[in-house]
Amino acid sequence: MLRFYQRWAYRLYPLRTLILIIFVAATLSFGWMLFAAPVAVAEHWQLSIVLLAVTCLLLWLWATLFSRQLPSVELATGFAEKLKLRLQYGIYYLLALLVTLMLLATAYLGLRALKGIIVALFFG
Question: Please, which pLDDT band fits residue 50 given cuts at 50, 70 and 90?
Answer without folding.
Answer: very high
